[in-house]
Amino acid sequence: MASFPSQLPRSPSLLPKVSLLLLSLFSCGGLFDADDSASPRYAAIFSFGDSLADTGNFLLSGALPFPSISRLPYGVTYFGRPTGRCSDGRLVVDFIAEAFGLPLLPPYLAQGQSFQQGVNFAFAGATALDTAFFEERGISDILWSNSSLSVQLAWFEKLKPSLCGTPGECNAFFNRSLFLVGEIGGNDYNYAFFKGKGLVEVRSYVPMVVQAIANATEKLIRLGATELMVPGNLPVGCSTLYLTLYGTPDKKDYDRRNGCLKQLNVFAKYHNALLQRALGKLRRRYQAARIIYADYYGAAIRFAHAPRHFGFVNGALRACCGGGGPYNFNVSAACGHPGSTVCSDPSSYVAWDGIHLTESAHRDIATGLLEGPYTTPPLLPSTTGIPTHSSGLF
């Protein structure tokens, strides 16, 4: 097991502004059966998670901690307007829905929407653990909301009677539905790191975060879900935000191959290893369910290793929208705030606002999940119809 320093290297000039950052940016997740080409593989998709998957719940709630999400340049690439997505365009969940011939998932808090083909419960800033965990550790003052994973599950339970009437109808409906349990868990660590907690302490949270995700997955199975995809964490050592806040002159702290912070990527791998172990236990307990691990880390680390191969000619570490600095990230001029600028071609970047990804990065991750080797067991046959960002995906 790799050793962890008690404290990450940090920039003294930036960390005092972390609370401000959290209040302005941080929080903001046609295919057919091989044997039946006439029927869509899934009738509906139900999504849970945080800002990587939120398609509008946080914005509909008021978005007071992150007002810039309500205006351009958020949404500029695909929608031409802000939709509540923490990106310039579509997210992984959007590309998955499109690949199955389903409409983009409406947010749960939307009024007058039909949820018969799916709904998105994901909420920017959400955590896997409940608020009480952070209160006990002096972290709760920077939480954006209490819309944790358990709250999202409660929303699903409340909605369920409107989706199907009898147990037989529910079984038939959910047997043809895909449940996306995340991405979730990253914010549990983000809040702690940004509050100044050391790497060793935050590492001690990982088993509890993973157990919360596993418990949610198990609860969905008991509520009728039979096919579930559970993503792991991204390579946070390649995050523009972390590279800015925890930059160090010591070259040994960086991966020579990609310029990412090594210890933070080791941390993400630790979370993912524990999550895969937990999902393995669930598979043995619920053999009738299909529980899929989505390797977001593997799908995304490729961009840092060879960004130009995927069309990211401006690299993987510098943000498209930001306020300057080595990685174009400045807590005092976050994307959408005075002093920030936006690049002319977001598709040439991996990082959108320093925390979240561009539509192009989301597309390539989705393609890696659907066509590539980044789901265990594989989600689908190889043909998906998703247009790839680059001419050659692998």
Automatic annotation (TrEMBL):
UniProt keyword Transcription regulation, yes or no: no
InterPro entries: GDSL, SGNH_hydro_sf, SGNH_plant_lipase-like
Keywords assigned by UniProt, alphabetized: Glycoprotein, Hydrolase, Signal
UniProt key word Glycoprotein: yes
Example of a GO MF term: hydrolase activity, acting on ester bonds
Species per Swiss-Prot/TrEMBL record: Colocasia esculenta (Wild taro)
Name of this chain's protein: GDSL esterase/lipase
Signal peptide: 1-34
Family statement: Belongs to the 'GDSL' lipolytic enzyme family.
